[in-house]
Amino acid sequence: MKNYYSILGVTPDSSDAEIKTAYRHLARKYHPDVNPSGAQMFKYISEAYETLSDPKKRMQYDTVNGFFKSCSKEENVHTSSKQAQEEYKKNASSEIKQKAEFSKKINDIFEEFSKPRPKKEKSFPKKGADILEEISIPLKDAVRGSERVVNVMHTTQCPRCKGRKFINGAACPFCKGTGEKSEHRKIIVKIPKNIKNGTKLRIPSEGNPGENGGKNGDLYIKIKIEPNSRMQFDGPNVIYNVPVMPFEAVLGGNVSVPAFEGNLSLNIPPRTHSGQKFRLAGQGLKQNGKIGDMIVVVHIEIPSSLSDDEIRLYEKLKKLSSKNIRENLLNE
Known about the structure:
The chain is an alpha+beta fold. The chain has helices at 4-8, 16-30, 39-52, 55-65, 73-77, 82-114, 139-144, 246-251, 308-320; strands at 131-137, 146-157, 166-167, 170-171, 180-191, 200-203, 219-225, 231-234, 237-244, 253-259, 262-268, 277-280, 286-287, 290-291, 294-300. The strands form six sheets. Strands 8-9-15-12 form a four-stranded mixed beta sheet. The chain has a three-stranded mixed beta sheet with strand order 1-7-6. Strands 2-5 form a two-stranded antiparallel ribbon. The longest helix is centred in the N-terminal third of the chain and has 33 residues, at 82-114. The chain starts with a helix and ends in a 12-residue tail after the last helix.
């Protein structure tokens, strides 16, 4: 229960005129028209005066809260004993001291309320932060183009503590004191054909949310093409190292070569040697409006596993071979 006497700066012994004078003084000081920050104090002052200026309300308030006027000299004559009078004075002095301390606390609160509050800075729309993610794609996807689902983590201001990190002096239980809320969102990214390694794709408005009505940030996807031991690039041209069987190199014929848009047919002549190059026009990359070529480099390779029949045939070939292909190595 509020101490109305302390709020007005008077005591239970104060007369109606003293209470009215105190009210007028405080009302002029804390009226909102004079002191914009004194609205709450003016409310307390008005509430106190409304009760203490009405005799019935004041009597009821004093009875409920234990406020009694000091005895007059005439009333003291009728006190049963001197000891009772001394006890009453002692209690009255203690009560006055407590009320004075309480009144000081109330005045301190009023002074704090009366201090001018710093003006809030005007909030301007702020764009959200951009997000950068990196994804690795195989070479065929880089050439053919594809779609990838990217799991992107978005960070927003904690809705509970509004980024302040603390609530009632303790770490916010919702964000654990980080001031942020993070969540993952799946986004479908379309990868165009013939994309280069290190290219950044921009997806508008898929970054972190803006503040104060600002736009969302953007999402940037950095493309990393996975290494391929069979292919290298020379501008728009593709250098393609293709293995062939020994019999294909010796006998020649059509060889099926896997490429970006399906299999290609490569016609190699008989007695093709390892390292020989063949050009497939128009089968490279498209860059700057031009289409490059695919340069197939033939490499003779033997399968890691051979059947017994194949081994017997190689043994027969060994017996039939009379040419030493290494005899002139030092003269070449």
